[in-house]
Amino acid sequence: MPPPPSLAVPSIHLDLSVFGAPGLIAKSHAVAAFSSKGDEIRAETSQAIVAWKASRAARSFAKDSASGSPSSEQLPAGESALDLDGLFDGALPTSGEVLSRAESLGLGHADVAFAISESASTPEAAARLSALGVLGSREAVLAASSEDEFRFLLTRLWRKTADSVAPAFPVDRSFAIAALKVQRNGATYFIHPVAHGQRGAPRRFAVLSLVRQVKASGQALYSEQNLPAYYGYKHGLETLDHAAAQGAAAAVVAAAPGYTRATLLKREIDRALAPAGALAALAWVLISPASPSAWALLLAFGALAWRMMSSDLRQMRRQRRRRAAAAQAEGLVDIAEQYADEARNFFISKPDLEVLRGLELPQPLGATADAASVRSRAIADAVAADAAASGAGEIHLVVGHLHAHEVAWRLADGPRRAAPRSQIS
Predict the structure, then answer these.
(1) Among 382, 375, 371, CA closest to 238
(2) Which residues touch 209 (CB under 8 Å, ≥6 apart)?
(3) How far apart are CA 347 and CA 35, in angstroms?
């Protein structure tokens, strides 16, 4: 079956460090009894399936007829659902199993990617996949009660099929830091993603080169909060987006607000002293193991050193690998694959925007209410409003790479209501 037309499918960031290990997600082995809430979910799913089938049939009738490929509408009524329900064992299928089902039905990766990219919520995604014939009705109901695990399944399906549909935004590689290019209302936005930890500034010279390039062009430059201080520049404006996580608006101020040479020097000294102090305290404990002061100093410096290292890219990679191993031990295949994939591609000094697109659920399905996602939307809204007020035509925005795709989506289409639950990946 030929792929559907080009789709506008941006992605969003996933800031996963705020979530617990996947071992906390229990794998269901039986379908729980549902209350009235379950009835509402089933009714919503049923309505979504009907609407999806009607719209899909209208769009793809000519395509299916020409190719001769069997779509879910061409199968005898209920055949796929009945077969899949007969195989249902109380758990969600893996992404590999779903793609095998699609292949047996003559469906391509683009069909699965299209169903995911067109979904605005997890119930709708379950309905669309069920309508395609790759998810049974009982699995679709289970997806509602096991939303966390279902999001992992959707994310892995998207990772394996995203390259079959066109991306929403081109990648402009003409700058020192590649950018997602977004055009709206006569303005052009360039979103430059950087992978940073609080302990260092990877690719600092490339970032400073970008800043000089933008400054020389006379174009507007905005930065996510703290990035000017991390990388050592004070050009342009900065969004104070951290406050957005508590419901406040993101102010736009001069870059590196509140930082002085003295405070920046203290920050660097703290970075150097924390591990050195921990080692000195450890030596004291080894020499005088009965000294309470030595143990107290070791605990204090050890906690400080751990805190400063915990946001480092290497530390976050190790954390993801541990989560992948834990998930693999529990038989959670898609969760393990996702964490391992993130360890390889999220927490590196030069992340690839095209790879990031596949590792994050596409919009609007990916829009959620977690703190990092709220900050992404706050950054985009603040920059769009300030740039419009100043009349800027070409705007550059430097953000953490896990914000890039959602910021691009928000700038392109404006506000959209987020899902009530947090993104887990």
Answers:
(1) 382
(2) 176
(3) 42
Q: Strands (DSSP E) along 146-219, which ranges?
A: 171-172, 179-184, 187-194
How many other CB atoms are there within 10 angstroms of residue 189's CB atom? Answer: 26
Measured CA to CA in angstroms, residue 271 lies from 8, 74, 204, 278 at distances of 43, 64, 17, 12
Judged on CB neighbours under 10 Å (0-12, 13-18, 19+), 215 is: middle
Say if pTM beats, i.e. exceeds, 0.90: no
25: three-class secondary structure by DSSP: coil
Which sign does the torsion angle of CA 309, 313, 316, 317 carry?
negative
- Residues 150-170 have pLDDT tens digits of 998 999 999 999 999 999 899
Question: In angstroms, what is the C-alpha Rg of the chain?
Answer: 24
Whose structure tokens read 């990617």? 113
Backbone angles phi, psi at 266, to 5 degrees: -60, -40
**Residue 198 three-state SS:** coil
Q: How many CB atoms lie within 10 A of CB 18?
A: 10
Q: Which pLDDT score is estimated for 80?
A: 45
What order do you get walking across the sheet with 179-184 strand by strand?
A: 171-172, 179-184, 187-194, 394-400, 220-224, 237-240, 251-254
Rounded distance, CA 124 to CA 132, Å?
Answer: 12
H helical segments located in 333-370:
333-345, 353-359
Amino acid occupying residue 418: A
